[in-house]
Amino acid sequence: MLLKYWPQKTNLSFMNLRLIGAVVSAVLIASSIFFLATRGLNFGVDFAGGTVMELEQTDTITVEGVRQAMPLNADVNSAVGTDARSIVVVKYGEADASILGEEFQALSASDQAERATGATNELVTETLKEALGITDEQILRNDSVGPKVSQELFRDGITALIAALALMLVYIWFRFEWQFSVGAVAALAHDVIITLGVFAFLQMEFNLTTIAALLTIIGYSMNDTVVVFDRVREEKRKYKKMADKEVIDLALNGTLSRTLLTSGTTLLALMAIFFLGGPVLRGMSFALIWGVFIGTYSSIFIASTIVLALGMDLNKKPIEDVPGFQG
Amino acid sequence: MLQFPPWKVALVLLTLAWGVVMALPNVVNMDDAPGFMPKKGVNLGLDLQGGVYLMMEINPDEVIANRLEVFAGDVRSAFTNVTPSERIGHLPDVKGRQLEITLTRPDAEGNFPMDEALRRMRKLNGNVEGAIGGAKTYEIEQLGTDRILVTVPAASEEALMKDALGKTMTIVRRRVDPDGVSEISITPQGNDRIILEAPGEPDPQRLKDLLSRDGKMTFNLVDDSPSAITSAQAGVARAGYRLLEGPTTGALLVRNIPEVTGADIANAAQGFDEGNRPQITFRLNSNGARKFYDTTRNNSGKLFAIVLDDVIMSAPRINEPIPGGNVRITGDFTQEEATDLAAIIEAGEMPAKVQFLDQRTVSATLGHDSIRAGTRASMIGLALVAIFMIIAYGLMGGFAVGSLAANIVLILGGLSGLGATLTLPGIAGIILTIGMAVDANVLVFERIREEQRAGRSPLTAVQAGYERAFSTILDANVTTLIAAIILYLLGSGPVKGFAVTLAIGIVTSVFTAFVVTRWFTVMWLKTFRPKKLAV
After folding, report:
1. Of chain B residues 407-466, which have a CB less than 8 A from chain A?
2. Do residue B403 and residue B521 come from a single domain?
3. Which of A175, A258, B285, B302 is deepest in the core (most CB within 10 A)?
4. Of the residues B131, B153, B175, which one is the last residue of a structural domain?
5. pLDDT tens digits for range A95-119
6. Is A218 within 8 Å of B453 when comparing Cβ atoms?
7. What's the per-residue H, E or C state across B414-436?
8. Does B368 fall in a domain?
């Protein structure tokens, strides 16, 4: 059994490395903010608005053919779609009112602003269908998001992230102590910022499913942090005289085997999605894989370090465990 | 921790059996199964089965303007459809969110009949529907000696929007699904939005065409004298008339005030004329039929235009009085066009135009590809995790894998039983749960291992392991559940699907890890009584 070779009882001094961790994290956060400021996030249609179409690639439906038939500037690329299908991806924004027809030009300015995306999509779909003989079935995906909805989706996404962080803060405060909740939420914010930085650096598409992934990272990282904190609380009660630094190291070593195993199984499952789940889930699974690493790292080096810096006063008041669970 | 009385075993088995029964239709065809078994598997989201998603909005300004137009019409009847001596001369004007009525005919002393006008208008002003304390729909104010201003107060606006949204939803339903047989779902969002989901529909254009029309149908008398039309084309239309076009009729001068309106149409259908060309037939209600008969009797020889959204559909010449109220429109339609027009005419007029804010289309091909890719990824993910667990924990790992299988059955059963929708991110949620579900097992096993190392017997080690891991498992999963709930509340479409599977997965994985694995372990311990537990 593999476990024979698995580190059973480790005695690593994580807290001695906390300065290195702090430097690494500071560098990562600074470069994340730098990339977010300079490159920015590559928003998908969910947040940027506009249209994305996926066409099945055939002899006639090619990147070149679509480019020639397009009535406006567009981003046309060839890609591998879900289930290894060859596809042509077409991305575009809003066409100028002058080519959208008289009916469109007769609308009021506010109506024009709201309808331009949809009207452009209609025009492009009709034009491409006619020029290249595309059937409905060959249009694999055709998504248009207007400016109003894309702004709302973005706002809702940010609200969700902030609400999640706030609720975690409250829950941990309630179950532990304020030092722990500050540590946990700082670790979460650290994870979110660095993940955003990676998306900005790699210019991977940032869309609704990425927000879902970020929230899941928050959940996962929290999960990890809670396991460590729970152990810290337990060891602290057991060894009342021991210094905080040693208590935390003891707890981190005690949970290390579990941390590695759970990260391992989660990573295996995520790798399966990343490689086999198709392009729709690739961005999401990438974020999650990254999140497993950064979440594990941050519970050790950020959450615990902050708790150590702020100090614990678990001995001052009796803390009740979950009352009376009996099997 | 180690006691499993029969009732508890029964409860576990019942839960698992429920999961199996609920999950079964996803795997095998249940059409021939006995009646009490569920026949339908989990609902697939549009991204998995293909279809069209449309989000539309109605504009409050337009709803209010249209309501004020209607009110202006009521005022016109109250001011003019009375004995000549009681008539009140006036000019209505709807501008944005207000209606201004100017009185035009003062009496001999130069006074306008303001008090009488206000009295009649207040009589028309009903209470806001559902409001407490009898708030009025409109606010009517006197401006100077000859003008009256009508506005809509905020409380009433809310009620009007609610009413308009409800009406629009009914009309949307009747237009896109006149026979009420399709699986199209139409749901409100907020107080001004409607979401339409049409599974299996490959082309959003037809739906948008059906829904973007006002559907305002009128029957108007026509002045077709060439001189009148020419002067109207030059910009001077005869008072009370306007110039409209039609594909088969060309330009005609149509009277502004209609004789019969769409409100009087009882039903409309697509049919065929004598030459077997598609036509639209419809029947007027008794009120409409009477008005139609009167008009045709009094206007023999004139043209009678059927106008839909300011386009003349047809303008036959009146040869004789037509009783019965059966009308037909022949023209250059394809059968599909005629069917759609009939649906639009029968559904009636929209309270306001809809704007399309968000439209997404996924083809059935892509949906099938996604299901296949998702299933394959789940299977392989599951296999990898299972192998990993058995390598790491041996027999106990095997127990964990058994409870993982139970977990997947329960997730599928839960999704089917709750009528939740499975989306592609939802499938990712299941795979992620597979990876994370073992966490609870790992936490317990690690504890058991520590306890054993501290010199306890297998039974007490298992007991202590479960007891001590419980609060950690609870805390860790509550936090993930918080994230899932927020995602559900603020997410939309596919992301909501992810949140649902994640939430269900958290609940079932805690149950399976804490109850099912423990039960396996305890049974094994009691049967074989091993000296040492290989964890």
Report:
1. 424-425, 427-428, 431-432, 434-436, 438-439, 442-443, 446, 449-450, 453, 466
2. yes
3. A258
4. B153
5. 888 888 888 888 888 888 888 898 8
6. no
7. HHHHHCCEECHHHHHHHHHHHHH
8. yes
Which residues of chain B neighbour A209 with C-beta distances below 8 Å? 425, 494-495, 498
Q: What is the 3-state secondary structure (H, E, C) of B25-47?
A: HHCCCCCCCCCCCCCCCCEECHH
What is A50-145's CATH number? 3.30.70
B441 and B335 part of one domain:
no
Residue B406, burial from CB neighbour count under 10 angstroms (0-12, 13-18, 19+): buried
On whether both B38 and B120 belong to a single domain, the answer is no
Domain of B504, CATH number, reads 1.20.1640.10
For residue A240, give the H/E element and its range.
Answer: none
Per-run averaged pLDDT (10 residues), chain B, 535 residues: 80 90 82 76 88 92 88 86 84 88 86 88 82 78 90 88 89 86 88 91 87 86 84 81 85 86 84 85 87 88 88 86 83 83 85 88 91 90 91 88 91 89 87 83 87 86 88 85 86 80 90 88 85 72
Contact A137 B363 (CB under 8 A): yes
User: Residue B98 domain-assigned?
Assistant: yes
Smallest CA-to-CA distance from B241 within B250, B353, B251 is with B251
**Does residue B517 sit within a domain?**
yes
Tell me the C-alpha distance between A221 and A190, whole Å.
Answer: 10
Whether this prediction's pTM lies above 0.90 is answered by: no
- ipTM > 0.90, yes or no: no
What's the Cα-to-Cα distance from B303 to each of A252, B144, B245, B255, B497, rounded to whole Å?
A: 90, 44, 14, 11, 57
Torsion of CA B370, A276, B381, B498, to 10 degrees: -40
Are B230 and B261 members of one domain?
yes
Do residues B25 and B95 share a domain? no
State the residue for tokens 């303007």.
Answer: B65
Residue B383 and residue B524 in one domain: yes
Given the DSSP bridges, would you call strands A50-56 and A86-92 parallel, antiparallel or unpaired? antiparallel
| Range of the structural domain that residue B67 is part of | 61-153
Mutation for A interface: B359, B453, B468, B511, most A CBs within 10 A: B359
Distance CA B321, CA B324 (A): 10
Are B334 and B369 found together in one domain? no
Considering the domain boundaries, does residue B334 fall inside one?
A: yes
B266 by Cβ neighbours in 10 Å (0-12 / 13-18 / 19+) ranks as middle
CATH superfamily, with its number, for domain A11-43+149-310? Multidrug efflux transporter AcrB transmembrane domain (1.20.1640.10)
Which backbone phi and psi does B2 adopt, to 5 degrees? -105, 0
DSSP reduced 3-state for A289? helix
Rounded to whole angstroms, what are the CA distances from A95 to A76, A143, A145, A175?
A: 16, 16, 14, 55
Please tell me the distance from the alpha carbon of residue B51 to that of residue B49, in angstroms, as a whole number: 7
Q: What residue ranges do the domains of chain A occupy?
A: 11-43+149-310, 50-145
Number of other CB atoms surrounding residue A91 within 10 Å: 15
- Joined tokens for residue B74: 């009521």
